[in-house]
From TrEMBL:
Keywords noted in UniProt: ATP-binding, Nucleotide-binding
Domain of life: Bacteria
Natural source organism: Dactylosporangium darangshiense
Entry protein name: ATP-binding cassette domain-containing protein
InterPro entries per the UniProt record, alphabetical: AAA+_ATPase, ABC_transporter-like_ATP-bd, ABC_transporter-like_CS, ABC_transpr_LolD-like, P-loop_NTPase
């Protein structure tokens, strides 16, 4: 029986794209408070697996479940925070507005969204950037703002797909500092895909993806 503290449970997950199988027969559990690095070569299936866990893609076979959500993530906006390789901030909105936007889209009142965005920026040491537009930010600043946007709703799970890929060593270390700090503060599980051994070594558990499978099979992290 899976511990009811698990934030994600996948059983025999398969994801195909035409004749290509990106994820093949993966069973895994992401437990409450997990810190998991997902490693593997480009094209191994890391991103596809993360997208299944985040609920932004659907498996071709097997089952994906989020026990603590009582349903699909799309029915619970903000409960899973997603950080991608590029920040993808909206260029016409300032930092505060970018961070507040997902809260507004989830139905949060404007004042509540603004305050939550401000609190999250403060948590990540970004308060001084609140009125800046994306083009006024450095790459590292923009990526940390993307982290703030992903976690403003205090998600149960943070899924980060190669967020440090375009950064130098110092920038990557600072971003991982931010992700770990916010995950600790909000009691969220963190799942982070990376090619960087130094980044992976900072997380407590590692899943290595080879040809769409996790080798060795992951132990439950709860």
């Amino acid at each position: 029986m899976v511990d009811d503290r698990a934030v994600f449970v996948g059983e025999h997950l398969v994801r195909t794209f035409g004749a290509t199988t990106a994820v093949r027969d993966v069973s895994c559990v992401v437990g409450e408070g997990a810190r998991i690095a997902v490693t593997g070569a480009s094209g191994s299936g890391k991103s596809t697996l993360l997208h299944l866990i985040a609920g932004i893609d659907e498996p071709t076979g097997g089952t994906a479940g989020w026990p603590r959500l009582d349903g699909h993530p799309r029915q619970h906006p903000g409960r899973i925070g997603i950080v991608l390789q590029r920040p993808a901030l909206l260029p016409t909105l300032d930092v505060g507005e970018n961070v507040a936007l997902p809260l507004l889209l989830a139905g949060r009142p404007a004042e509540s969204a603004r305050l939550a965005a401000g609190d999250t920026l403060a948590l990540l040491g970004l308060t001084e950037l609140v009125d800046r537009l994306p083009h006024e930010l450095s790459g590292g600043q923009a990526q940390r703002v993307a982290v703030a946007r992903a976690v403003a709703a205090r998600p149960q799970l943070i899924v980060a797909d190669e967020p440090t890929a375009a950064m130098d060593t110092d920038g990557a270390a600072h971003l991982v500092d931010a992700l770990l700090a916010v995950a600790d503060r909000t009691c969220a599980a963190l799942l982070l895909a990376t090619h960087d051994t130094a980044v992976a070594d900072r997380l407590q558990q590692r899943w290595h993806v080879v040809d769409g499978t996790i080798e060795p099979r992951p132990e439950p992290s709860c």
